[in-house]
Each structure stands twice: as structure tokens, then as C-alpha cells.
Amino acid sequence: MLENTEKDEKFMRRCLELAAHGMGHVAPNPMVGSVIVCGDRIIGEGYHRIYGGPHAEVNAIESVEDKTLLKKSTLYVNLEPCSHQGKTPPCSNLILEMGIPRVVIGSVDSNPQVAGKGMERLRKGGCNVIGGVLEAESRKLNKRFYTFHEKKRPFIILKWAQTLDGFIDVIRGPGNPAEPTWITNDVCRVLVHKWRSEEMAIMAGTNTVEKDNPELTVRQWSGKNPLRVIPDRSSRLPLSLKVFNKQADTIIFNQKKEEVHNNLLYRKIDFDKNVLSQILEMLYKQEVNSLIIEGGRQLLQSFIDQDLWDEARVFIGQELFVKGIPSPELSCLPVEKTLVGNSTLLYYRNQH
Q: What is the pLDDT of residues 162-187, one digit of tens each?
């Protein structure tokens, strides 16, 4: 027989597996999975499937065929059940209404509207509540959600590809065609499109948009296009560029105008002050909880120098440029290394 702690961890791992299915579909809400166990047997499962839809606990309870079993069951959930009326009713109320006597929780919800209130309501209602089971794993899964609420900004991912000799691009003059310089392989490009589908917003610098003419959308993967974020101080980028097409909503941060044209939103900021802070503040107000930065070198290094990043994903291709634009510089070592085709992928974490 497994001890209670081992049982709780076993079923919490299942909650985390279920929760991960919500990636790219529930933001800015957290990814949540729930399992209902009676007599060491799972009798119900559910996860938060789509933003605005029923929460994991609701789906798990609905999946139980014999509702009378709920009164002698344990409900597992990787995030504290909500206690406020949002787009859906409070899950803590439903748990009490169904008479579930024991609730095991992975991590406390840092949203100020919840932040321990759900656990408190359950305890006051007579539930035996156990918290902090696989807490580190639960927080890691919802790193975007926790960063958004605790740091008041999106979770920031830096991404670039560099050559074996440390360059991210060749040096191109005004007459060079607007074509990207490929460093990695097709497998890497598919992976990048998958990453885009998982984040709420994507950002590239003015020079990169002008030189490479990227679309910054999900084309080689199934998923939702992220919000495109473009800093363009003087609004000099021509509307014929791909980032201005109708495939995704796009915010252009500039110093001239506040306008809306179909899917294009022009937001005015002061470029003589801290540009990144202003952009992140506006994205936070729009409830954008994750942002992936895809270049160029100046923009990436600005995020690094201001310590405004959480994760970096760096491809090392097989190309040699000999001379060119050097890659951004990180002062930490990679925490993970893997092969993607014939390229190496390094993961970095900001320990701050």
C-alpha cells in the first residue's frame, strides 16, 4: 500500500499531465487539471480546456458517473480552487455543495482575487485541505501565470539562433534584399512555430522586421497566432510588410499616434524614457501573460541588460559566418542542452 504522501503525489502528477493539455488555449488563465479519487481509484478527471470555459474541477466533477461517491472522495487539483465569481462560478462553492470531504492542492493561486481565499473557504466549510503537494512542479507548469501576477509583467522568453562562431546574422547594407539568413534547420523552424502557439504575444525589433520581413505567426504548427508587438518609433515601417497583414492582431508602439486600423493598434509611448518598461506595462494591462522575443540583437540585449527575461532558448547551428552581427550575451550557463536535428538547443533560466 502506498502511504498518503505517495498517493497524493501520484494523483497530483496526473493533475499536472491533464493541465498541460490547456497549453496555448487557456491564457491568461492558468493551466489546471483535476482528478477525483475514491478508494484509491480515479472516478473522475478534467482540465481547463479553453479560456472562459468551465474550470478543471467542474469538468472533473461532471465526469463522475455516480455522484454519491463524491461524499467519500478526494479531489486533487494542481492550483487552488477559485473563490470568486469570474467568467465562471467559484469552484470552491461547487466542491462544498457536492460534499467532497478532502481536497489536495498543488500550489496557492497568486491572483489577488484568490490568494488563499479558496483554501480558507473550503476549510471553513469542513473540508480537509492539504496544500503544497508537488508545489515546485505546479508553479513551474504555470510559470507564466505566476510571473504575471507576482512581477506584474508577462513571462519573457528570449529566442535566437547563432552560428558556430557566434553570429546571429550577416552584416547587411541598405541594398540587401529583405530575406532572413537561415542558421538552423526545418525541424527547428517547426519547433519555433510550436513555441509561438504557446505564447500570448511575440515581439521583434524594427530593424529585424525591416530586413527579414517575418510574419511572426503560426504556420507550421496548429494553434492560435500570438499578438504581434512591434516597436517602431517613427512609424517608418511600410504597411506592405508581412507583420501588418490580417493574420494576427498587431500592436505598433510609436511616438506619433494612437489609432486603430482593423487588426492594427498604434500605441503611443515616450521613446526618450524606458521603452521596454512602458511596453511591458501596457501588455500587463491587456492581460498578456507571456511574450517571446525573436530579435534582433539590439532588442534581445536590451531585455538582458535590464534583467527583463525569464527564459532564453538559443539554437546553435552548423553555419560559420566568420564575420557578422554577434549574438546577444548572457552571463549565466545553460541549464539544459538538447539536439534538434543537426542543431544544438540551449535553455537558460534567469536565476533572479
A: 999 999 998 876 666 556 678 999 99
Q: Quick one: 196 exposed, middle or buried, by C-beta within 10 A (0-12, 13-18, 19+)?
A: buried
281 is catalytic: no
Beta strands in the chain (DSSP E): 33-38, 41-47, 74-79, 102-107, 128-130, 155-162, 167-169, 201-203, 227-231, 250-254, 259-261, 264-268, 290-293, 311-316, 325-326, 336-340, 343-349
pLDDT tens digits, residue range 50-60?
Answer: 999 999 999 99
Catalytic member of 45, 57, 198, 319? 57
Neighbours of 187 (CB within 10 A): 13
Please, which residues have CB within 8 angstroms of residue 210's CB and are 6 or more apart in sequence? 178, 237, 241
Q: What is the pLDDT of residue 110?
A: 83
CA-based nearest residue to 235, from 200, 271, 272, 202: 271
Rounded to whole angstroms, how far apart are CA atoms 18 and 63? 14
Could you tell me whether strands 250-254 and 227-231 are parallel, antiparallel, or unpaired per DSSP bridges? parallel
Ordered strands of the 74-79 beta sheet:
41-47, 33-38, 74-79, 102-107, 128-130
Mean pLDDT, residues 319-324 taken together: 92
Q: In this model, does residue 88 exceed pLDDT 90?
A: no
Please provide the average confidence, as pLDDT, over all residues in the chain. Answer: 93
Give me the pLDDT at residue 175, please. Answer: 60
Cβ–Cβ under 8 Å, residues 255 and 270: yes
Give the other-Cβ count within 10 Å of 258's Cβ: 9
Q: Is there a contact between 80 and 105 (Cβ–Cβ < 8 Å)?
A: yes
Q: What's residue 1's pLDDT?
A: 39
